[in-house]
Amino acid sequence: MKVGFVGLGIMGKPMCKNIIKAGHEVSFYCRHADVTAELEALGAVSKANAAEVAAASEVVITMVPNSPQVREVALGKNGLAEGGKPGLVVIDMSSIDPVETRSIGAALAEKGIEMVDAPVSGGEPKAIDGTLSVMCGGKEETIEKYRDLLMTMAGSVVRCGDLGAGNVAKLANQIVVACNIAAMSEALAFATKMGSDPELIYKAIRGGLAGSTVLDAKAPMVLSRNFKPGFRIELHIKDLTNALNAAHAINGYVPLTGQVMEMMQVLKNDGCGSDDHSALAKYYEKVSGVTIEK
Which positions are catalytic? Predict the structure, then answer.
């Protein structure tokens, strides 16, 4: 299959590599010479812009930071709409505002180009090993047509509804993850302040109702003081901003999301925006006067 890829950052590069390894013919656009050389060495073909990628592809995957970048890649100068022929499918795997997804999709449809939104969960480790959770919005027959392609990057692919539903699911996911990390951090800071060993407290609660994938992934990072980013705080701020904007657009109410967002803003202002989102623990350390560690 002729596949295009635009957006080769922390997540996009390993995702693209998995597509190449699966034997697909890949064209891509990237501004970074080192990444370009790396992908070319694997057999992918570099293009001068997104329009050239679209012209060479049956389906194009985009994985860029936020709504403005998706709009620019899809509809801007030298964008996908400029180079794509009617029948092209764009699968946007970025995490963006679902309202904007539907708007961009409508504009592409006027050019005969179909859009699917397919944001992911799992962070860099799962992007590397190809076990991401993919949440799709779009026509069922289109998602089924490209399911095998998506599964080269994923452990699961779930259609959540029509266009935009994938990003609704992703924002719901990000709300749950953010609130989980905040609750975990609050609990471990509490345990530390009480004079208990936070590692033992973690081990005690992980097997009960409080146990979760988030707890097992993030508590060991906090306890070992490892805040190397799998998913950066500044990116989670972006997702929670989109969640708040989408909720407010429908008169929704997401108070916990707003609270965690403010905690993350404090950390960003403290220079921790590039830390893993497990660094939410640093907020509680700051206000509690403790250090959570083994």
Answer: 170
